[in-house]
Amino acid sequence: MSASATISEIIQSASVASLGTVTVDGGPFVSLVTIAATTPTTMVMLLSGLAVHTKNLVVSPKTSLLLVQPGGEGGDPLAGARVSLVGSTIRLDRGEDTVARSTFLAKHVSASMYADFGDFSFFEFTVDHAHLVAGFGRIETLSADQL
């Protein structure tokens, strides 16, 4: 399977990711979030304005997501395929989040209980490049255009 196909498979199947943001003082911050892919190079997240990662996104849209191929979490976690996505994240205004909302809530049905709370918003992550590690010796970096 090509690197592009492997990355696409991971993006489409992933429902959680490690989200890396930049703190107010310029340091790194990583948290766990739920995601849903809307295109091969965009994913959406439903985030609370109270969360540290959301406050970080207000300061800097620079973002990284680490996605692990399903099944890669068990056994030897370093043996499974994973992809680090680097890009940027923006908050979507209510009313302009229809596709994000429907895609995300189809994948995360229980989120409909809080999706309309005032402090929650949908955020869209756009890939600039992807770094795939798919086993020993199989490491490739692809641009968004190559996905």
Task: Give a description of the structure.
By secondary structure, the chain is an alpha+beta fold. The protein has a single domain, classed as Electron Transport, Fmn-binding Protein, Chain A (Pnp Oxidase, Chain A, Roll). The protein is 20% helix and 41% strand. It has helices at 3-13, 52-59, 98-107, and strands spanning 16-22, 28-34, 36-39, 42-48, 62-68, 82-91, 120-133, 139-143. Strands 1, 2, 3, 4, 5, 6, 7 and 8 form an eight-stranded antiparallel beta sheet that branches. A hairpin with a 5-residue loop joins strand 7 (120-133) and strand 8 (139-143). The radius of gyration is 15 Å and the shape is globular. The mean pLDDT is 93. This is Pyridoxamine 5'-phosphate oxidase. Residues 10-145 form the CREG-like beta-barrel domain.
Notable features of this structure?
147 residues, 41% strand, Pyridoxamine 5'-phosphate oxidase, CREG_beta-barrel, Split_barrel_FMN-bd, HutZ
Task: Lay out the secondary structure.
Layout: H1 3-13, E1 16-22, E2 28-34, E3 36-39, E4 42-48, H2 52-59, E5 62-68, E6 82-91, H3 98-107, E7 120-133, E8 139-143
Antiparallel strand pairs: 1-2, 1-5, 3-4, 4-7, 5-6, 6-7, 7-8
Quick structural summary:
Helix content is 20%, strand content 41%.
